[in-house]
Structures are given as structure tokens and as C-alpha cells.
Amino acid sequence: MGAYAQAFERALLDPEGFWGQAATAIDWYRQADRVLDDDESPFTRWFVGGELNTCPAAKPPNTTECTAPIRAHASIPTTASGIIGM
Fold first, then answer.
1. Nearest-CA neighbor of 85 among 54, 57, 44, 59?
2. Which residues, 6+ apart, have CB-to-CB distance to 2 below 8 Å?
3. Where are the beta strands (DSSP E) in 14-79?
4. CB-based contacts of 69: which residues, under 8 Å, 6+ apart?
5. Is there a contact between 67 and 56 (Cβ–Cβ < 8 Å)?
6. Element (H, E) at 21
7. Residue numbers in the chain where pLDDT is lower than 70
């Protein structure tokens, strides 16, 4: 089985573990209290309590300013700095 197929299978079998591990590659301002909150399934919440700034990941290389537009769902509070609290 190839690496993609293995990752895909793990994401299906253990979504909380898979995405929790993937989230370690992100610079968080505040780590999430829970990776997956499915207490009210099928309405799930991901990275509950986590706080991150998406701008550094979106800015072009070799720039000092973050001018990337912020795109978020209306139900997620967003500040002018681009910090999204979930």
C-alpha cells in the first residue's frame, strides 16, 4: 500500500488522531483543548479552544507584511489581526 493510501485509510479509521498529528505542523497561538468534539454528532467541531493566525501560512515568501485576505465562515469570530478563535 502506498503512502497516500495509508494516510487516507488512517484519516478514515482515526480522524481525531490523524488530524491531531497533522495540526502539529501549524504554529498555534493556543493549542486546542480537543481535536474533535462530536458530542452533538452529526454536528462536529474541530480543534475546540484552539487559536491560530492563518496569515503567516498564506503570505508570499520573502515578505514581511501579511496582506492575505481573511476568509472565514460568518459563525467563526474573527478579529482584524486574522486570529480565529474556535
1. 54
2. none
3. 28-30, 34-40, 43-48, 51-53
4. none
5. no
6. helix 15-22
7. 54-61, 63-86
